[in-house]
Each structure stands twice: as structure tokens, then as C-alpha cells.
Amino acid sequence: MAEFLSTSSVSGTENREDEEVEPKFKYQRLANDLKNILNTDVVTSTAVHFKFLILGTFRGRVHLLDHQGNSVNSNLSNSERYTHQVAVNQIDVDPKGEYVATCSDDGKVNITGLFSCENNQNLSFGKFIKAVAVDPELRSRTRRFIVGHDKLILYERNLLNKLKPIELCLVEGNVLTIRWHGSLVAWASHLGVRVYDLNEKCSLGLMKWEAPTQERLENFRCHLLWSNKHTLLIGWVDTIRICVIRKRNLIEASSSNLPSYIVDPVSTFQTTFYICGLAPLNTNQLVVLGYRKEKSESFKAQRPVLCVIEYKKDSSEEICTDSLTLRGFEEYTVNDYSLGSIVEDNRFYIVAPKDIVVASLIETDDRIEWLIKHRLYINHLLTLKQYEDAAKLCLQMLGNNKILWEEEVFKFVKCQQLRSVSAYLPTSDDCKLDAHVYEMVLYEFLKFDVNGFLNLIKEWPSHLYDGLAVINAIHDNFRKQHAKQMLESLALLYSYQGDYESALRMYLKLQNKDVFKLIKRYQLYDVISKLIIPLIQLDRERAFEILLDKDKIKSELVVHQLEHSKEYLYWYLDSLIKVDSRNMFQNKLVSLYAKYDRKKLLPFLRRSKDYVIQDALAICKREGFYPEMVYLLGCMGGVEAAEALNIIIHSMNDIEMAIDFCKEHDDNDLWNLLINESAKQPETVSKVLDGIVDYVNPEVVVSRIRTGQIIPNLRKSLIKMLWHYSIQEEISFAAQQIQLEDYFDTHSEVVALQRRGQQVSCEQLCLLCYRPVLMKNSGFNCIIGFKCGHIYHEPCIEAVISDRHCSECRMRSVDPTEKE
């Protein structure tokens, strides 16, 4: 390869923009034997294969070269028979790189084996042939190829090894170019682009192309490229279209006349130049060779451009654009250029009639060289007050070089624009600058942009700078109009320094609920003892979540802090009783319930036993809480119970409650008091009669009724009472009968059980003499058995015990007289 080909901008007066953008490609011009070929001929068509390059020339010659431009000996160079009489229009190579197909305006199509003549073909059509394509299948060995003129014709060898033409379809005008991939053949005509499916033997449709103003579509080369088996790239005139060949969905396939596949244009966009070739770079980026539409001041062609374009659905963006200085570019037209590629190596061949240049993605060494070369440009941008551009350029150029970064940062200090470079400063351990650099940036933000200062405190790791120095700077420059941002900054800085109490105070001044996260994250439960009331004021629910956990903070400490804030104390103790029903502060809770929520008082008094009943009674008497007084006096019993009954009768006027109270305590004195009081109020006598059943003899109530006294509903109450006693008598009699029957049934079972025999076997031993209990011709066959199952010889047991109980378990024998 020859010299390095540098990039340049469109006009020599606008180099600044190109210089600040890091180049994406490096360029080298092919030379060696190619140079000799181009001295006597011009290139009209090319094919780039991963093994070699093939050039077709204006004189009809076809040359095989390696990737460095050296000629390779092959059948193409060994015989004049495989050349054309006029310019070569299109070249195609099989995937293995063994056969080459060429066509020309001389009407000939040649299929040439580079190193074998076995399947060579020479066809003559007597008309211009613009396009030819060989079968892309690896196993084909060029048994099939397609030729395009006014028809699209597939040629394939039959069993007799003879070529058989198959007309695929008629063409609107002539076929301009063909690209074949798998079973799909893409080709362009005067109207647009079609895709033909060889499996279904039909066209998948026509994509019409808009002709440029005052131009004919066929005057521009159509550039087709399959980036994969289902994606077709089309570049024609100044429009690029990315098409996906997909299977029709159920709705689209509802008509049986349509083919199974459809060509779906997923992205269409225009370029600012005419397209001379295109190739894929990555998922959504293309490399495009372009021919500028505008002429130069001398009305000649401008330099071609190589663009990297990132595309979306119907839009695109030029990532980078390089203007190329090719030999003779001023004299060339749009159709004189072409672009070939080896996608796997990210190598792109820019072909002009008298020049071939290789563009390769720039490598690390070349990038470093460019960055070093462009360092001084930062000074230029700062002079122009383009601070943001200068900062971005620092990021591109300086990488992780600490020394270079510190040198460049001080340039921003002089113009007080550290804020511009702050977003690009390195903060990782791989390239950590001196602490004073970060402190200078923070100080400038503190002075001019408090919000930006707070964001940096949040984003930057705290070890980059001296936190105490920054805290002092905030205190020295504290401004009330920015108090919120400064207090939050102080809270963060104090927490970074481990001074959590100060951090908590800052958050509380801010009324910032992040204080609770800080407490939990750093376990600051010892610190919050003096901050309990502010925490409750900030968020009672989240504060109690911490304060109610005795493992984190003692309840005695909380109660002490809340002694002078009775409502907060009530909230806390009311929550504490739910998690600790035996806490020591329940006596306080009586007065707090009486003051803040009386409806909770009586349930609490009934539920809890950990309060002083006399104190609770005093509070209820003071407040006049009769139900609570009744309950407490009832618990005390004796005279206090009678006082409770009097409160129910005279203060609450609730005779039903009085009856229930007497039933609960079931005390004769209370019943007598109730009966005496009811006798004074005739309207209550019938209610008392209804309530005393099973507790007091009704005669006591009736005897207190004075002669002539009118008692409402007395007859009804007496009938109800007599009916109740009648039922009780019947129930008692029935229960007695059931008890007698159970007694006799149980007695019968016991008798039957006592009379039941007990099984004895010869294997059983006497537990005293350890001989078998049954022996032939022996006086020991008289045995005694016990309910526990133990068996003894009678002589043995009589000699030992006299109370007829088993010597092992002291159970009585089945029958003391039973012998065998």
C-alpha cells in the first residue's frame, strides 16, 4: 500500500469543525501492480471478496488482485478469450471465490473459473447486458446463474450438464443490477426495485423509486446489498431504504393469491449527496460513499465523501463525514465511483476510475497520535469562549492521564469556567486528581451555582476532596436565599464525615424525611435521644417505627423526653401499648386517655391490670366518667361495689345495667340493695323480676310490693318467671333419670368385666419362683392371677404376701379364690 491518505473538510476554510471531531477511519491508497493497470486503463466495475479483488476495466479486461494491489495469476490473465470488447458493467463472485461472472455492453456473459475451466461458460445475447449474478449457495459450483436484460433469466444445468434457461419475469425497461442471496433475488429496473422468490417462483412486489428532477432514474446506478438473509439495503440517487423480507401475518395472508413473504421497508431516508455505494457497519449504522450535488466554484465536481450514517425508522444522523481526495475527482460523475467492503474486517474499498483507497476503522495507536496532535486546540476553544466544546474535547483527548488533566483544568480556572469541565472530570480510582482540583470546582459552584454545587456533593465520591474544608466554605459563604440547598449540602457532608448528629440537625431544619433513612442506614439510635420531638413533628408514623423498637431506643428515654409534650406522649404510649402490653407507663395512659380519647379508656381499663386502680378512680371521679367509675368500683368490691350500684341506679338510671352488675358479682347485699331501690320505683319491679331468675328467690321481690301498689307488666313478668321455673324442674328431673341410667349401665359393665376369664399359657412363669405356672402332676398348679396380667403359684404368693395384692404392681387378684 502507498501513502496515508488524510481526511479534509469540504472547504479549506472550515477545518475547525473537522479537527475537533475524532476521525473514525484511516485511509491508504492501493498501489503496486494496480498502479500499472490504472496508468493504461480505468476501472468500471469491481467485486471485493475476502480472498481478493477483481477489477473490470473500460477496455473490457478483468484483473485479479490481492488486497495489497498485487496481480494474482489466474485464468483471467492467461487468455484473451475471457475478456470483453467494451467496458465491463458488473462482476459477481461465488462465495468460495472459485468462479467469476462478468457482463458487458458487447452482449456477452462470461462465467470463468479462476483456476479451473470445468464449468466455464461464454454466452452472447446480442444486446446490452448490465447485470449478472452467480448462485450464492456454497455447494452450487456455478451450476446456476442469473442474467438480466429485458427479461430476468435463470440458467441452470440439467442432468446432461446442459444449460437450461428459465424466464423468471419480464422487466420494465432493462435490468440495471442484480443481487442474489439464498432463494431471494433483488434487481432494479427503470421503475424501481423488485425482489423475486425462487422458492415460490413469484415476485414479492415492486418498490417504485422517485426519479430526480430533470433526470432519468436509469442514469443513476442502483446499489443493492444483502446485509443478511432477510435484510436488503438499497441506495439509489439520494435515497436509502432498509427493507426486511418477512413472512406475512395472519391478516396479510388472508388472501390466497399473495405470496407468503412480503418486502417491508423499515426505514427510508434521504442524504445530502448522491449515493455511490453503501455497506453495513453495525446494527443501525451504514457506511455510505457519496457524490456531492453541488459543483465547485470552477463548476467541477467536488471531492467524494465517506459518511457513517446512523438510521432509525424514518430518520438518520451523520455520525462523521470525511471528504476524500482521489485522483481525478474533479472530472468524475456519480456513476464513476463504487464502494466494496469486507464487513468482517471493517474494511471498505473506495473505487474511482483511476484510484482505489482502503478505509479501515481507526486503531488505538492512530487515535492516540491524533489526540496528542490536537491538544493545543483546547486553548483555541477557550479563547473563543467555547467552554463546553473545550471540556468535551478534554474528555476525548486526555483519557485517564492525571498529569494532562491537571494541566488543562487550570486553564479553566483562569476564565472561571470550572463549571463547564466539572461534568467531564475523572472521578474513578483509575484517574483521581489532587483533592484541591475538586475543591476548586466545588468552591466555584458554591459561589455561582448553588444547585450545581448540591448536585456535585451528591454525585462525587466523598474521598475526592477534604469534606471539612468544604463545610467551612459553606459556613463562610452561607446565604439565606439558598438556605435549603446549603443545609442539604451540609447534611450530606456531615454524614460523609461521620458527624451524624450534625447531619440529623441539618435534615430536621430542612424538614427532610431522608433523616429516617440516615438513622436506619447508620444505626444512629444513640444520637436521636435529644431529637425525638422534632422527629415526631417531621413524620409521626416513621418516627414511632423507630421509637417503639426497644432494642433501638429505651422507652424510658422517650417518655422522659415527651413529659412536657402531653399530646406526643399520648400518641407514643397509645402506640406502645399495642406492641408492649406490660409496659410500665400504663398509669400515665389513664390520664392521657381521659384527656385525649375517652372512648379508649374503658376498654383499656378492662384489658390492663398494670395501673393503680385508686388513681384511675380518682381521675374518673374528677372527670365524671360513670361507666369507668362503675367498672373500677366493681373491681374493688365490698362497699365500693354498692357505691357502683348506686351510681348505676341514681346517676346513670340504667336498671338493666344494674341487674347485669348484680349478676356479675352475685352478692346478696347487692341484690337486696337493688330490690329495695326497685320497690321505690314501681316501673322497675317487673324488670327486676325478669332479671333475678336463677339468682334470687322471687318471693323476696314480691314481698316488698306494697298492697295496692300498681306495678306495670307485673302479670307478664310473673307468668314468665313461673314458666321458667317449670322448665327448670323438668330439666332437673330429666337429668336425674339420665344419671340413674348411666349408673346402672356402668355397674353392669364393671360386673361383666370382673367375671371375665383370664388366659394362662404354659410359657408363663411365676414371678416369685420363676417356674412355669402350669406343671404336670404338681401341687403348684394352683395359681392366682391379677388384673395386671401377672400370674403366681398360690403357695408361692401365700408365703410372701397376705393382702392378695400383686407383688409386682400391687394390683388385687382377679378372684382370690380362683385356683387350678
Low-confidence sequence ranges:
1-19, 813-820
- The fraction of residues assigned to DSSP E strands is 15-25%
Classify the secondary structure makeup into a structural class: alpha+beta
Helix content: 25-40%
Q: What is the number of helices?
A: 29
Shape: elongated
The average pLDDT value, as a whole number, equals: 84
Spatial ordering of strands, largest sheet: 1-27-26-25
Q: Report the span from N to C terminus.
A: 129 Å
Radius of gyration: 54 Å
Biggest β-sheet strands, sense, barrel: 4 strands, antiparallel
Number of strands: 29
Pfam family, one: zf-RING_Vps41
Domain RING-type: 766-810
Subcellular location: Lysosome
Protein name: RING-type domain-containing protein
